[in-house]
Amino acid sequence: MALVDVAARLVNAHTGDWARGVEHTPPTSSEDRIAATATALAREGGRVPRVTRADAELLVSRAHDLRQVFVAAAANDLDTAASLLNPMLLATGARPQLDQREGAWQVHFHGADDSLAVGWAAGCATGLALALGSSWAGRLGTCEAERCDVVYLDTSKNGSRRFCSTSCQNRTKTAAYRARTTR
């Protein structure tokens, strides 16, 4: 599900108006888009990939498409989510293959000669497709808190997550408490 996490990071970096109750302005300059894309693609504690302007622009465009998939899946509209994903899979030429990297075999969903952006777009689309076609379909979410547009993959044990973070959950509970006590 690592590819779904990358997809969510791309979506959250490049789309939406709010994140955890704070206004979020997606980056607009090429340099900022490159930096945000590289950060979204970086693995925890891993190296940050070298992202070109063309890579960033393609992945920003895909982030907008991927947001629509998360929104549809969160609304349990899997038909719409699948109809959005299938053209992305086709456009990126997503196809599984094993590549050897640093002595270990890894599954990638793009050709060895594809650009960084096409490779990541194919991987993110494939990761979401695998989630939609499995028991993970109901675990693609959008935060239910006011003033939050964050998307996420629910990895909780019982799959009942409604918020992107504890801070959004606490803000929502506090607002509900205040609404009840001021009546």
Describe what you observe in this structure.
With 183 residues, this protein is mainly alpha-helical. It has helices at residues 2-14, 30-41, 53-74, 78-92, 116-132, 166-181, and strands at 18-19, 22-23, 97-101, 104-108, 140-142, 151-153. The strands form three sheets. It has a two-stranded antiparallel sheet. A two-stranded antiparallel sheet has the order 3-4. The protein has a two-stranded antiparallel ribbon with strand order 5-6. Helix 1 (2-14) crosses helix 3 (53-74). The radius of gyration is 17 Å and the shape is globular. 39% of the residues are buried. The mean pLDDT is 93.
DSSP strand count? 6
| Biggest sheet character | 2 strands, antiparallel
Please provide the ordered H/E string of secondary-structure elements. HEEHHHEEHEEH
Mean pLDDT: 93
Layout: helices, strands, pairs:
Elements: H1 2-14, E1 18-19, E2 22-23, H2 30-41, H3 53-74, H4 78-92, E3 97-101, E4 104-108, H5 116-132, E5 140-142, E6 151-153, H6 166-181
Antiparallel strand pairs: 1-2, 3-4, 5-6
Short account of what is shown:
By secondary structure, this protein is mainly alpha-helical. It has helices at 2-14, 30-41, 53-74, 78-92, 116-132, 166-181; strands at residues 18-19, 22-23, 97-101, 104-108, 140-142, 151-153.
